[in-house]
Amino acid sequence: MDYAQIIKEVGRGKNHARDISLEQAEALFDAMLAGKIPELELGGILIGLRIKGEAEQEMLGFYRSMQKWAPKLELPKGMPMPVVIPSYNGARKQANLTPLLAMLLAREGVPVLVHGVSEDPSRVTSAEIFRGLGITATQNLQNIDWHTGKPIFIGVEHLSPEMYQILSLRWRMGVRNSAHTLIKMINPFAGDVLRIASVSHPEYIQRMSGLFNQTNSTALLLHGTEGEAYANPLRCPQMHLCRNGNISTVVTREMGERDAPELAEAKSIESTVNWTQRCLRGEITVPRSIQLQVEACLRVISVS
């Protein structure tokens, strides 16, 4: 590929850059994942896309490329549709409730796979909370026992080493890149799954839903909490279901002050683990927004 020409197209700044075609985008991401693009050119392309913003056709091409490299897991016969939850942001201001969401779904008999970063020096990750809950991250998804009633967690470095290499450039370049949006959409199963996907800005709901619908994917889409895919316990967001090429709103409830839940006192690992265990034992009430999210997922799975 002529990488200089691609940089010329995408690197002209927000107002003058041009989009590349779906086919070019797929081939470009193929080359990224294969490690074929020289570092200088790769950095130029990623920064150019970051400033320009990826067009829908570009993201679709990138997505198709990523899925070629993704695992194709098979579940035992008779198991319900699996739920896949990305966790790449962690906690900055309040406790990370992604593990609670995963635990609640898994104890309903749903196969739940959580994937994400194994560590982040500036945030409390789901991986750390899972360890505190006695759930050790797996490094290999083959021969997994999906009947334990507990979620499976895998670090992205083991789920998709190719994507991990691109994600890791964040620490060298100082900013995130296209891979951070894409990895949250990965389907590591051979069949359809329910992906829980979050956006940081409401305007991205339409963009993400368009991509899910173009790929005929099933997803519960919501405005996330600090970048995580659980519903904010302090203000329940709208939740949208992407399925069969359509989008519908499945949760519309906005909570008032009277619904304020009892939350963990701090975002620390120990505090979050203790609070999550108390929720699971029924000693304190699960936040209503999380209850609504679990119920929405179970309704989707029950009609799959």
TrEMBL record:
GO terms for biological process: L-tryptophan biosynthetic process. InterPro entries: Anthranilate_Pribosyl_Tfrase (IPR005940), Glycosyl_Trfase_fam3_N_dom (IPR017459), Glycosyl_Trfase_fam3_N_dom_sf (IPR036320), Nuc_phospho_transferase (IPR035902). Keywords: DNA-binding, Glycosyltransferase, Transferase. GO terms for cellular component: cytosol. The keyword Lyase does not apply. SUPFAM superfamilies: Nucleoside phosphorylase/phosphoribosyltransferase catalytic domain, Nucleoside phosphorylase/phosphoribosyltransferase N-terminal domain. Signal peptide: none annotated. Residues 5-68 form the Glycosyl transferase family 3 N-terminal domain. GO terms for molecular function: anthranilate phosphoribosyltransferase activity; DNA binding. PANTHER family: ANTHRANILATE PHOSPHORIBOSYLTRANSFERASE, TRANSFERASE. NCBIfam families: PRK08136.1. This is DNA-binding protein YbiB.
